[in-house]
């Protein structure tokens, strides 16, 4: 049998405001009322809530334009919100009787100074928020009497240096945020008082270097954020004692050199972000010892080449980001040892040559991004062994020809991005092994015709994007295997005819665009077995509105949602109120008596003799 507690909402009493003399506040006088006990008294211009069950009093004085601290704060207060006021300074012993206080929020309160003894008496304080103020200096031992403090936020202030003994007494602290100040240097032993620290944020400062001993006492640290500083290099032994560290952020610095073995000892590290730095080269021993690393981000550096065995210790790596560097070629066994890797990004480098064997050993890679390079040619069998690959990005890569053995053995591939190349030839049998392919993007290339064998074997293909090529012709049986295809975009080509038998096999087709071609006629017969068609885009052709288009006219008038006259959408971003119209005009080019009219506007009489 369960005990019957009163419902939770009756436990929470919102108490009436009781004005007390002293602190000036611009808010109106609240009606004076005597509360049951002294302990439940709520300071003037604040709101309070009292939880009967836990006997916790919470006082909310956020954004009340307070210029001084409210007096007569009941000593049983559990949480006190003073953020968003104009307090300017915290006097000594401001909270001296509040030994039950657990949470104190003083953020965004224009604080420029805090007396050394300001926090005396806060024996139970657990969370202290001092971020987003104008603090430049705090005296040593400011937190000496708040020994239970677990989290301390000092970020977004104006500190350019801090005292070595500032954190004395904080042996229970596990979170310290010093980010977004102007710290230029840290005292050697500043963190030595913090044996239980789990997370340290130093991001957004101006630190140009790190001393050897600086982190040596932080043996419990799990996360260290040093991003967006002015660090130029990583020396040996800086992180050697951080055996429990799991995440290290060094991104957005000026790092151009990392000492070999700089990360030795970091056997728990799972995440290392070195992106947006100035690294030019990596050595065989750079990442030695990182036996637990899962994510390595090296994008947006100036790395020019990758030596074999650079990553050999990283047997658990799952993500390797190398995009936006200056890598020129990939040689054999560059990624040796990365048997667990799932994501490899190499986009926006200067890769011209990839040797066969470059990707050997990447048994588990699922996503590979090579876009934005200038590959010119891909050797046969270059992707051999990548049996788990399901997304391959080769857009914007200067490819002009696809050869039969390039994609062979990629039997799990689902998405192949080849758009924005100069591909004019896809040799026979080049795509036929891609049985699982769902999406093939070939838009913005130079294909002039599609051979009848080109898509044989692609029985699962759903999206086929062929817009902005130079297609003049599509052979009869080209789409015969594509029974699952539901999106076909042939817009912006030079098609003059589209035989009705070409479209007929596409029994799952839901979207068809043949906009911006040179078609004179279109047979609705090819659509008749297509009950699922949802959108048909026909604008921008040279429609010859004779008897052959009578059926299309009928179809368009019958199904205005399938052949819309226009679709209206809203632009994204700031001008989001300006509607954009995408038209689907069926303008007749000829014969002369109807030229310029939309097929749907022509009267029935015009087709009377058909
Ligand atoms: C605080 O002052 C601002 C500006 O004078 C005013 O707009 C706002 O209403 C005041 N807030 C309170 C809670 O009195
Ligand atoms: C703290 O409590 C004592 C005794 O109850 C009282 O005399 C003193 O004024 C209080 N101090 C503050 C800062 O409220
Ligand atoms: C691949 O890189 C290109 C170019 O930077 C980017 O636009 C695209 O989103 C990337 N794709 C993936 C899956 O990472
Ligand atoms: C069709 O061509 C016109 C003019 O060249 C262009 O503005 C429009 O974007 C093209 N339509 C599509 C769907 O690309
Ligand atoms: C209508 O015009 C098309 C395109 O010019 C032509 O192929 C077709 O034979 C014509 N149909 C009839 C019934 O005249
Ligand atoms: C399509 O028709 C609409 C309205 O009939 C017209 O405003 C628009 O300019 C036409 N668009 C094209 C590309 O012909």
UniProtKB/TrEMBL annotation:
Which coarse location class applies to the principal site listed for this UniProt protein?
A: secreted
Record-annotated LRRNT domain positions: 41-79
- Which GO CC terms are listed, alphabetically? insulin-like growth factor ternary complex
Keyword terms:
Cell adhesion, Disulfide bond, Glycoprotein, Leucine-rich repeat, Repeat, Secreted, Signal
* Signal peptide positions (record): 1-23
Please state where this protein is localized. Secreted, Extracellular space
Q: Name one GO biological process term.
A: cell adhesion
* Subunit description: Forms a ternary complex with IGF1 and IGFBP3.
Its protein name is: Insulin-like growth factor-binding protein complex acid labile subunit
Q: Which organism is it from?
A: Pelodiscus sinensis
């Amino acid at each position: 049998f369960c005990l019957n507690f009163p419902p939770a909402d009756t436990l929470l009493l919102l108490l009436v405001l009781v004005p007390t003399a002293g602190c000036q506040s611009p808010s109106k006088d609240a009606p004076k009322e005597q509360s049951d006990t002294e302990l439940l008294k709520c300071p003037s211009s604040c709101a309070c809530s009292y939880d009967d069950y836990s006997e916790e009093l919470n006082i909310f004085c956020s954004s009340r334009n307070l210029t001084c601290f409210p007096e007569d704060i009941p000593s049983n207060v559990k949480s006190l919100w003073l953020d968003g006021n104009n307090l300017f300074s915290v006097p000594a012993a401001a909270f001296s009787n509040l030994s039950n206080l657990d949470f104190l929020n003083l953020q965004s309160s224009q604080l420029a100074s805090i007396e050394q003894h300001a926090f005396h008496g806060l024996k139970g304080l657990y969370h202290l928020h001092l971020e987003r103020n104008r603090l430049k200096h705090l005296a040593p031992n400011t937190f000496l009497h708040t020994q239970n403090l677990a989290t301390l936020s000092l970020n977004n202030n104006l500190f350019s240096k801090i005292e070595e003994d500032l954190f004395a007494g904080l042996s229970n602290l596990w979170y310290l945020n010093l980010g977004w100040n102007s710290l230029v240097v840290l005292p050697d032993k500043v963190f030595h008082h913090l044996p239980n620290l789990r997370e340290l944020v130093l991001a957004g400062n101006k630190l140009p270097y790190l001393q050897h001993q600086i982190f040596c006492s932080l043996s419990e640290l799990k996360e260290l954020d040093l991003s967006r500083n002015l660090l130029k290099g990583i020396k040996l032994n800086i992180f050697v004692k951080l055996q429990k560290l799991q995440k290290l952020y060094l991104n957005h610095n000026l790092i151009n050199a990392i000492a070999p073995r700089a990360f030795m000892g970091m056997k728990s590290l799972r995440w290392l972000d070195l992106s947006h730095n100035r690294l030019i080269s990596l050595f065989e021993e750079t990442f030695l010892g990182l036996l637990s690393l899962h994510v390595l981000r090296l994008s947006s550096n100036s790395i020019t080449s990758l030596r074999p065995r650079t990553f050999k210790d990283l047997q658990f790596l799952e993500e390797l980001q190398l995009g936006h560097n200056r890598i020129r070629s990939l040689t054999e066994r560059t990624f040796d040892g990365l048997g667990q890797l799932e994501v490899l990004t190499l986009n926006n480098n200067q890769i011209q040559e990839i040797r066969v064997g470059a990707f050997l050993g990447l048994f588990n890679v699922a996503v590979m991004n090579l876009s934005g390079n200038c590959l010119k040619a891909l050797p046969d069998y270059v992707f051999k062994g990548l049996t788990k690959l399901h997304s391959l990005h080769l857009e914007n890569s200067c490819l002009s020809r696809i050869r039969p053995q390039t994609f062979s053995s990629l039997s799990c591939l689902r998405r192949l991005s080849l758009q924005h190349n100069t591909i004019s030839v896809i040799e026979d049998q080049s795509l036929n092994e891609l049985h699982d392919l769902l999406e093939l993007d070939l838009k913005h290339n130079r294909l002039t015709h599609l051979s009848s064998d080109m898509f044989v074997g692609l029985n699962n293909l759903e999206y086929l994007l062929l817009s902005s090529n130079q297609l003049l012709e599509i052979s009869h049986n080209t789409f015969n295997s594509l029974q699952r295809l539901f999106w076909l975009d042939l817009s912006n080509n030079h098609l003059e005819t589209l035989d009705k038998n070409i479209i007929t096999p596409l029994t799952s087709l839901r979207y068809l665009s043949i906009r911006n071609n040179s078609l004179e006629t279109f047979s609705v017969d090819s659509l008749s077995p297509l009950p699922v068609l949802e959108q048909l885009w026909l604008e921008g052709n040279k429609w010859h509105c004779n008897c052959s288009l009578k059926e299309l006219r009928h179809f368009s008038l019958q199904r205005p949602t399938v052949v819309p006259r226009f679709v209206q959408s809203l632009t994204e971003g700031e001008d989001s109120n300006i509607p954009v119209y995408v038209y689907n005009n069926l303008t007749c080019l000829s014969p002369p008596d109807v030229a310029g009219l939309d097929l749907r506007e022509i009267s029935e009489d015009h087709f009377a003799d058909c």
